Structures are given as C-alpha cells and as structure tokens.
Amino acid sequence: MGDLAKIFKAYDVRGVVPDELDEPTAEAVGAAFVEVTGARSVVVAHDMRESSPPLAAAFIRGARSRRADVVHAGLGSTDLLYYASGSLGLPGVMFTASHNPARYNGMKMCRAGAVPIGGDTGLTEIRDRAAELVGATATPSGSLIEKDLLSGYAHHLRTLVDLSGGRPLKVVVDAGNGMGGHTVPAVFEGLPIELVPLYFELDGSFPHHEANPLEPQNLVDLQRAVLDSGADLGLAFDGDADRCWVIDERGASVSPSVITALVAARELAKYPGATIIHNLITSLGVPEIVREHGGVPVRTRVGHSFIKAEMARTGAVFGGEHSAHYYFRDFWFADSGMLAAMHVLAALGEQDRPLSQVVSAYSRYHASGEVNSTVSDQGEALRRVREAFAGRGEFDETDGLTVTGPGWWFNLRPSNTEPLLRLNAEAADEAKMTAIRDEVLTIVGKVSE
C-alpha cells in the first residue's frame, strides 16, 4: 500500500500501480466510499488499462462488504460513467488515469446525478476512512449486477444533438488506443458519417502515442490522416474519452475557446438568454460571442469542480474550458467530449462550408496557448511580474495573476501539483501577443531552475 495522501488529489485519485495504488487500497476505498456517501447502490466502470479490471473488482469487493449493491458497467468512458450515474440515480466511480502514462491508474468519483466528489466535498473523508480500512476484510454481502450501458449512452447523446438530417461527413477519429475506440462506433452508428478510425484498438500501453490531445505531437498522425483522406474534420480523444480536440479540413487545430464559443451559440439558440460558463483563460471572444447571442457569460477559476459548482449555482446550460473539457446542463452538468464533438458535427453538417470557415466566425484573437515554466520560487516570480506590469493594466488575482490591458491580457498561475507557472496570453494582433508572452517569460525565467 502506498501513501493515500499522495494519491488522493484535489478532484480524484491517481497514482502509479502497484507502488502507490494497489488492490488492497482500492478495496479499502470501495468500503470507505460507501460509508462516507451512505450509498445503498453504486455504479462502477473502468477504462482499457491492464490494471483497471482488477482494481475495479477490488473496489467492488469493498463496496459490497458494506452491503452496497453494485452495478458493474464494465468498459466505458468517463462520460459514460456520468451517464450511468445520472440516468440510474446512483453514485459512481470510474477507474482511469485519463491521459497519464500506462503505469498510472486512478478513480474519478461522483454522487448520484454525476455530482462531483472533490477534496472539500467528501474525497478527504473517503481518504481518511480508507486509510483505516486497508487490510481489513469482510465478506461481500451486497449484490453484483453486470449491466451494458453503452447503447443507452449512445442513444441519450443522439437525443441531445440530432445528426440524422445533416449532410454526409467524413470524420477521422484518433482514439489514441483509449476509450473513444469503444464509444465512438456506438454513437456514430446509423448516422451520415463516414468514419476513418485511428488507433481504435483498446490498449492501455498506448503503443502509438500518449492519449493526450493537448500535446501537439500527439495530433500529428490525426492531422496527416485528415489531409490524406480528404476528411471534413478530425477528432482526437484522450484516454478516458472525456476530452475532445478538433482538427479542421486543412489539418489545423481548432482552439477549445473557439469550440466553446460555437457550442455556446448553439445552446443559446436552444435556450435564449441562458448563462454560459467559461474559465478565466478562455479567449476574450467567448464572453463577447455569448453576449452577442443574448446569453450571460460567467467567468470562473480553472478546474472542473469550479465550473460544475458555478453551473449548478447559476443553472448555466453550458460551460467550456481551455483544456477541451465541455460541460452540459442537459448531461447532468457533467463534461462530455463526445457531446461537444456532436455539436461541431451538427454545425458543420447543417451547411455546405468547410469547418475552417465555420469556426472563423468564433476566432477573434491570437493566443499563446499554455506555456509552462519550471520555477524554484513561484511567489517570487509572480511578485516580479506584478511589479513589471504595475500601472499597465487591470489586475485580478482570482486564480494566479491576470493582467488585462487594451486589446491584450495574460494569466500566470501556479500549478497545484508541480513547481510550474502556467502562462496564457492573448491579444488582438499576433505581434502584441508575442511581445506580452515573451516579456512575462523573460521575467519568470530569472527565477527558473
């Protein structure tokens, strides 16, 4: 057994198997999960990693030892687990380490209705109780039901975005040997889509590339395949398929801010005057476009727990993050990369223009993307940046430091888990964005390791 304090993060559980996360630990977490949540029934799903089935089985033993009944959904994406939690009205646990390398695994937990469990909403209590229960054994007394939820998940998504009447589209999907290879065929079945699959074989060793579409090198194969096949667009999913990255017909990446604005406009057409959530490092174009479409933009800190909490508080219909997480009120306020992808496909299929032209209406600024710097003293670096930009713009310290000037802004925020500062900069013209980005990086570099 490893150190539970090390593997229990702010929003989930994640660690190296078996050094930090093993079956006795998973069993103890299963028992603790039931005790802390008071659940009578729990739904469990897992990804394609070699360690996922035995870890899920251990968790199930622990949950059943506390007299909870378990619905085992088997292989699934994280948004399939959210669908299960929402549609069945049960707390749920997903075994996955998302985009992390093969040696990792973890758990994402939620209460009934896909309500997230984080550090301040039960995860700390589960950790502490699990630490007390490791090594304790009890006979499972709760029932175990195996239930295939894939077809129900696919049907539900198709009721939220109707793709049946659009023009035929050729779509390359890079599943990265992750769970998109399991869910995409089910969702696309019977739709006017010619699917070109890349790396659909479920393989938790990730033999082709990491299942992390935020890293440009992991998009190269998809971009090439879009061009070679003459496809209308490409989609890249991460390991647990809750994030989706979009490539246009020219092989160019489409910013998640642009996707956020596009989906927001579609949701506002359906729900006039509704609230849209965006985090503080999405493009300035997002709140502008939301207002232009009659919506109410609300800005939040970075992180899914903040997005989901603010969506629940405001009743927002949609929320988007720079990390390609997209959240929907119609999907229990949970995130689904697949549902966002379906909105893009619907927007494209409803007219005859190529995707690059469709999204150009939502792209107004030049962005740096996220630039990470390793620093020995995060506080000192932030202090120097504050000093350098004093009097040059408005300061906001909601999450790190955001400075906004005429036609530009940047945010510099510390990582919660690593000695990093993360910079995002944006401006109306590329030269200004580059100048701001490089100035901040130069200052940060003076305290870098």
Structural description of this entry:
The chain is of the alpha/beta class. It has four domains: 4-148, 3-Layer(aba) Sandwich (Alpha-D-Glucose-1,6-Bisphosphate, Chain A, domain 3), CATH 3.40.120; 152-161 and 168-251, 3-Layer(aba) Sandwich (Alpha-D-Glucose-1,6-Bisphosphate, Chain A, domain 3); 256-360, 3-Layer(aba) Sandwich (Alpha-D-Glucose-1,6-Bisphosphate, Chain A, domain 3), CATH 3.40.120.10; 366-445, 2-Layer Sandwich (TATA-Binding Protein), CATH 3.30.310. The chain contains 15 helices and 23 strands. Strands 1, 2, 3, 4, 5, 6 and 7 form a seven-stranded mixed beta sheet that branches. Strand 8 (169-174), helix 7 (180-188) and strand 9 (193-198) form a beta-alpha-beta unit. Helix 2 crosses helix 5 and helix 14 crosses helix 15. The longest helix has 16 residues, at 430-445. The chain is globular. The protein starts with a helix and ends with a helix. The mean pLDDT is 95.
How is this structure best summarized?
This protein has 15 helices and 23 strands. With 449 residues, it is an alpha/beta fold. It has 4 domains: 4-148, Alpha-D-Glucose-1,6-Bisphosphate, Chain A, domain 3, CATH 3.40.120.10; 152-161 and 168-251, 3-Layer(aba) Sandwich (Alpha-D-Glucose-1,6-Bisphosphate, Chain A, domain 3), CATH 3.40.120.10; 256-360, Alpha-D-Glucose-1,6-Bisphosphate, Chain A, domain 3; 366-445, TATA-Binding Protein, CATH 3.30.310.50.
Secondary structure elements and their pairing?
Blueprint: H1 4-7, E1 13-16, H2 23-37, E2 41-46, H3 52-65, E3 69-75, H4 78-88, E4 92-95, E5 104-111, E6 115-116, H5 119-133, E7 144-146, H6 150-160, E8 169-174, H7 180-188, E9 193-198, H8 220-229, E10 233-237, E11 244-247, E12 253-254, H9 256-270, E13 275-279, H10 285-292, E14 296-300, H11 304-314, E15 318-320, E16 326-328, E17 334-335, H12 337-349, H13 355-360, E18 366-367, E19 371-374, H14 378-389, E20 394-396, E21 401-405, E22 408-414, E23 420-427, H15 430-445
Parallel strand pairs: 2-3, 2-4, 3-7, 8-9, 8-10, 13-14, 13-15
Antiparallel strand pairs: 1-5, 4-5, 5-6, 10-11, 11-12, 15-16, 16-17, 18-23, 19-23, 20-21, 21-22, 22-23
Helix pairs in contact: 2-3, 2-5, 6-7, 9-10, 9-12, 14-15
